[in-house]
Structure formats: structure tokens, C-alpha cells
């Protein structure tokens, strides 16, 4: 027999969940997001489809993007046990300075389209976390405005070489004067990739008010209200030329860039110089010979060439070839902190995150970006503890393999 009784109020009340009144409703929703995937789904519901697809999509059939993500799904860790992991150091040396976490917030274009707060909010979160933030040439905040908004953040600048070399040099000088310490030259954009989602959605730069977009205002009034009541949505470092982002890349950026341009850039830039978009061992070796400080193995998030190389898969070979002479970073396909740990174990100096924090920006502005960084930090820390390592320096290939 079971002895039953009526529950007492004092026993029920502690079981009733209460929202933390110190949090806004949006902050509470973000706190309930347990992964970047959860943040992505929240972002999908808060912005127009064309805006979400601009971030979420890739070039062509999007095979490069899917394969980049799939590569991390094949990672298999080898945990070690009976080790004291009560204290874990997540910091790493990045281009001459210590970063509190083994990743940076990478450069992304047209960031204020995702949320009107744009790049300054992202840079502020990076500063709070003690990690670098890279502003893009296609950013919607000027180098000077970002420096003023986030003076305590370590700032990098991502550069595309324009057909107009005089304008390119003037921009580099502005970056130097504004206190940025690292220049990241993207070299995988000889022409713009064919991003079919943008074409099908009719997304132009800047967005046009068509009948379909006007109809969409009823579904996303907050996003449209912010767009129309803040400063015009435009690139801060160059004039918009109309068409999709792929069209703009083709019209403005120089397809004739060679190693000679790297030498020229080194002659006018006194800080650290990084090549982003390296996708082969051979080009990594050339980068070393050109005197750069680091390479970023990147397929542009799958947004340039379709069926391109997967950064994680070529990472070990590149590290073996040049890792004792320059730093090697990786981006693309990273969806969680465990992915970053895997890249570090395969020899990467660090990782760059793009889509992940843009999902956070779309989902909740600055608070959304902050939540993404918090999720990644927890996942990195937990993965390292479960692997039995207490510092990034202990991660090596004995910890990991691809199935």
C-alpha cells in the first residue's frame, strides 16, 4: 500500500519556476539557448528570411559549407582520466599577445544588417571576453568609429585589395592610425562567389524596398523599424555599387593580386600581417616565403568556391609543413566549442568564429553575441576537462583523430 496525502503549499511553491527578474525577456530566452544551434533557430525567427540566408548560406550547392561542418562530426577524441582538471587555462598566444580564449571573433560583412547595433556591439563583447575582434573592409562601421566605441578591445582589420591601390593604401594608413595591430588580407576573393540564396531572395546591397519586402515588414516590424530609424545601412570603407555582395566583390576588388602585392603591403604596414583564405599546403609555404606572420586556413565559410577544400582536413598537413615558422589559424564549419578544441589538437594556434556570433547578433544584439561567447567558453572548458588536459598547450594529436 502507498500512503498518499495532499501536498502542502510550502512543498509546491519551491517547484514553481520563476523568471529571473534581473533579466529582460529576450535575455531569459537567450539563457535558455544551450547551444549555437539553439541560437541559430532563435535568430531565424527574428529577422527576415533574406537576412538570415545571407548569414546562413554559402556558394553554389553549399557543398563546401556542409562538408566543413561534416568534417568536425568525424572528430573522435581520446580522453585521459585520473588527472586533476579542477583548474583549466583556456588562454593562448595570438600574434604576440595573450588571448583569454583560443578564438577570435572574425571579420564579417554588412554586420548592421543582422542587427542595427552592428560591429561595435561585437567588439565590446570581444573586449569583455579578452579576445581579438576583426573588422571587415565590408563592415558597416568605420575603423575610427569602432576604435572609439571599443577602445579596450584588441582590434584587427581584414583587408581586401581594391583595384584602386591609392585608395587601398589610404585605408591601410587609417587602420594604423586608429590603433589596429594586425592586418588580415583575404586572398580567396579574386571574384565573388555565386551565392544562390542571395540571388533567389533578391538581396541587394543596400536592401531594396520591393513589394515583397514591404509585405515582410508586418512579420518583422522590429527589424524594419530599426533599419529605417537608424543611420543608412551602407559599407563604411567603400561606396555601395548595387547588386548582391558577390557582384560587389567582382566589381571592386582586384582579381590580379599576386605575391608582389603581399610584398607591397608589407612595405606599408608595420604590424602583424596575416593571409586569410589559404587552402593548400603549397600556398601556405608561399605565404611563409612572403614573410607573413600567420595564415588562416579558410574557404570563406563556403561562400566562395563550391566543392572547396575543408580547412580541418588540410590543417595537419599545413601545420607539419609550416607550423614551426608561422602561426596557423582555422575557420569554417565550427559550430561548437568542441570543434575549436579539435582544431587546437590538430595543431591550430587558434580559431576564428563568424557565423556563430552573427546568429547571436540576429537573435539578440549585443546580449546574443555575449551568450554565444559564453556557450563556446563553457564547451571548450568542459571538453578540455573531459579530455584530461588543463591548458591549450597540452592539446596535441594524441587527443584526437578523424574517423
Automatic annotation (TrEMBL):
Residue ranges occupied by any FMN hydroxy acid dehydrogenase domain in the UniProt entry? 28-403
Q: Which cofactor does it need?
A: FMN
Q: Entry's InterPro entries?
A: Aldolase_TIM, Alpha-hydoxy_acid_DH_FMN, FMN-dep_DH, FMN_HAD, FMN_hydac_DH_AS
Recorded GO molecular functions are: FMN binding; oxidoreductase activity, acting on CH-OH group of donors
Instruction: Give the keywords, sorted.
Output: Flavoprotein, FMN, Oxidoreductase
Per the UniProt record, which residue ranges are transmembrane? none
The UniProt entry's sequence similarity note says: Belongs to the FMN-dependent alpha-hydroxy acid dehydrogenase family.
- What is the official name of this protein in its record? Unannotated protein
Lineage summary: unclassified sequences, metagenomes, ecological metagenomes
Amino acid at each position: 500500500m502507498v500512503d498518499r496525502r495532499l501536498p502542502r503549499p510550502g512543498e509546491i511553491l519551491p517547484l514553481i519556476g520563476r523568471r529571473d527578474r534581473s533579466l529582460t525577456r529576450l535575455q531569459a530566452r537567450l539563457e535558455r539557448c544551450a547551444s549555437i544551434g539553439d541560437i541559430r533557430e532563435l535568430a531565424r525567427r527574428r529577422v527576415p528570411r533574406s537576412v538570415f540566408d545571407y548569414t546562413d548560406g554559402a556558394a553554389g550547392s553549399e557543398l563546401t559549407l556542409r562538408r566543413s561542418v561534416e568534417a568536425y562530426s568525424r572528430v573522435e577524441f581520446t580522453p585521459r582520466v585520473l588527472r586533476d582538471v579542477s583548474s583549466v587555462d583556456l588562454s593562448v598566444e595570438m600574434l604576440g599577445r595573450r588571448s583569454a580564449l583560443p578564438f577570435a571573433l572574425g571579420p564579417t560583412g554588412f554586420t548592421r544588417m543582422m542587427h542595427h547595433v552592428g560591429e561595435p556591439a561585437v567588439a565590446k563583447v570581444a573586449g569583455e571576453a579578452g579576445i581579438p575582434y576583426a573588422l571587415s573592409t565590408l563592415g558597416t562601421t568605420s575603423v575610427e568609429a569602432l576604435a572609439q566605441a571599443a577602445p579596450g578591445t584588441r582590434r584587427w582589420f581584414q583587408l581586401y585589395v581594391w583595384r584602386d591601390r591609392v585608395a587601398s593604401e589610404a585605408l591601410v594608413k587609417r587602420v594604423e592610425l586608429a590603433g589596429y595591430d594586425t592586418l588580415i588580407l583575404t586572398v580567396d576573393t579574386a571574384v565573388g562567389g555565386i551565392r544562390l540564396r542571395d540571388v533567389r531572395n533578391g538581396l541587394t546591397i543596400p536592401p531594396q524596398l520591393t513589394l515583397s519586402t514591404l509585405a515582410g515588414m508586418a512579420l518583422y516590424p522590429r527589424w524594419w523599424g530599426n533599419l529605417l530609424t537608424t543611420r543608412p545601412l551602407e559599407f563604411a570603407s567603400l561606396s555601395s555599387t548595387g547588386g548582391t555582395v558577390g557582384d560587389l566583390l567582382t566589381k571592386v576588388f582586384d582579381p590580379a593580386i599576386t605575391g608582389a602585392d603581399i610584398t607591397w603591403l608589407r612595405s606599408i604596414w608595420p604590424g602583424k600581417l596575416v593571409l586569410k583564405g589559404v587552402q593548400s599546403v603549397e600556398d601556405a609555404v608561399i605565404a611563409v616565403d612572403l614573410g607573413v606572420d600567420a595564415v588562416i586556413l579558410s574557404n570563406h565559410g563556403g561562400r566562395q568556391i563550391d566543392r572547396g577544400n575543408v580547412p580541418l582536413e588540410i590543417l595537419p598537413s599545413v601545420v607539419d609543413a609550416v607550423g614551426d615558422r608561422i602561426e596557423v589559424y582555422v575557420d569554417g564549419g565550427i559550430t561548437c566549442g568542441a570543434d575549436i578544441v579539435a582544431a587546437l589538437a590538430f595543431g591550430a594556434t587558434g580559431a576564428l568564429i563568424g557565423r556563430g556570433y552573427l546568429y547571436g547578433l540576429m537573435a539578440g544584439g549585443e546580449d546574443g553575441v555575449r551568450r554565444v561567447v559564453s556557450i563556446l567558453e563553457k564547451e571548450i572548458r568542459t571538453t578540455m576537462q573531459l579530455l584530461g588536459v588543463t591548458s591549450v598547450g597540452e592539446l596535441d594529436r594524441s587527443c584526437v583523430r578523424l574517423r
